[in-house]
Amino acid sequence: MRTSVTVTAVYHCSLERAFRCPMLCDITKVHTGYGMMPRVTYVAEENNWGKPGGTKRVFMASSFAVKAGSSMIDKVIERKENEYWKIELSDFTFFAWGFKKFTGEWSTKELSRDQILITYTYTTHAGNPLFYPVNWLITHLFWKVYLKKVLENIRKLSCGNEPYQYA
What we know:
Elements: E1 2-11, H1 15-24, E2 40-47, E3 55-60, E4 69-80, E5 84-90, E6 99-112, E7 115-126, H2 132-159
Antiparallel strand pairs: 1-7, 2-3, 3-4, 4-5, 5-6, 6-7
């Protein structure tokens, strides 16, 4: 079973910056933690990150729900330049409340010069039907709020000309 949430924002920067920053900038500045979601501390094994099929291992700080260390694999499923990213997070090394994987879709649409509409959709995939009610609650009550925080962090990176870490 799947549950999705979508958040939107308008960034005042170039289309290229709005498209590239969420995936190619320093992820520790994007996922800074919130509530039960710990911050990302670093990544390793960045095998062709930024290209379809590219992966990286994500390491997180500890929280009441996650032990510090290697937490998951992040994979680029699809990339359509200046339009669309699709990523998948899976292979969790912590109790994930019945989630099997997450898929994220980041799309950009130029409204006018330096005015970019961002649509960020996150889909949670339940691995065990018994956890579906908990998955739904976490997705709609927590994850949507967390995504708004992530959108703001990415806006700062995009509009602040943060350097890319990947090509």
